[in-house]
Design brief:
The protein is α+β, with helices and mostly antiparallel strands and 201 residues long. The chain has 2 domains: 75 residues, 3-Layer(aba) Sandwich (Rossmann fold), CATH 3.40.50; 108 residues, no CATH class. It is 29% helix and 15% strand. The protein has a 4-stranded antiparallel β-sheet with strand order 3-4-6-5. The chain has a two-stranded parallel ribbon with strand order 1-2. A hairpin with a 2-residue loop joins β3 and β4. α1 runs parallel beside α2. The longest helix is centred in the N-terminal third of the chain and has 18 residues. The N and C termini lie far apart (58 Å).
């Protein structure tokens, strides 16, 4: 297993403080794979690494996935990393799924306003994000989640229904589910991005 993650067998004789951050991450991956699990949960696997090392670790994970037939459940706030690693994406806000779909589809055509902000934040310099929004305010405390749609205090598309009724996770397109009243009260799922509501709303 050490060689599979790019480490020498002699690494077993070294102390933890002798390894760089990237090599420590490789050790963590080797420990996770030693029992050959069918599923590995990756919780922010590269958030503490330098940009140059991140790509090495992500490519290593993809190589190991192909070699051993592993499935990954990747948890991250970095949508660029998620898009690179994933076939499918589930976007969560305050503990609830707000959008599910194929990775390329979600990143090229986000449907939920919160997803759109994540995509815009992950868009590299020089490229125009597919949907930009004037998001304001702070994320509510997890113990004081707003009624209705949890995103409504920050959403530029907010409507009266959003403040009182929690939107269900509904199918709005092929292999795409979104929990948003935009696709029931404001416009159809065929209009993208949806028009902003009147300023008075």
């Amino acid at each position: 297993m050490p060689r599979a993650v790019g480490l020498s067998v002699e690494s077993a004789q070294r102390f933890p403080h002798e390894f760089s951050g990237g090599r420590r991450q490789r050790i963590g991956i080797a420990r996770a794979l030693v029992l050959q699990p069918p599923l590995v949960i990756l919780d922010e696997p590269v958030s503490s690494l330098d940009v140059s090392i991140r790509s090495q670790i992500l490519n290593l994970l993809k190589d190991l996935q192909a070699e051993f037939g592993i499935s990954y459940l990747l948890i991250s706030h970095d949508l660029a990393t998620v898009e690179h690693m994933s076939d499918w994406i589930g976007v969560m806000y305050l503990g609830k799924l707000v959008e599910i779909g194929h990775a390329k589809s979600i990143c090229s055509q986000p449907r939920h306003p919160y997803t759109a902000t994540l995509v815009a934040a992950a868009t590299p310099p020089g490229r125009t994000p597919p949907w930009t929004l004037p998001i304001v305010g702070e994320v509510p405390h997890g113990l004081d989640i707003p009624d209705g749609c949890a995103f409504h205090p920050r959403c530029p598309y907010v409507q009266p229904t959003c403040r009182t009724l929690t939107p269900p996770l509904a199918t709005v397109a092929a292999q795409r589910q979104v929990a948003c009243h935009l696709y029931t009260d404001v416009t159809s799922a065929d209009t993208w991005p949806p028009p902003l509501p009147p300023a008075a709303a």
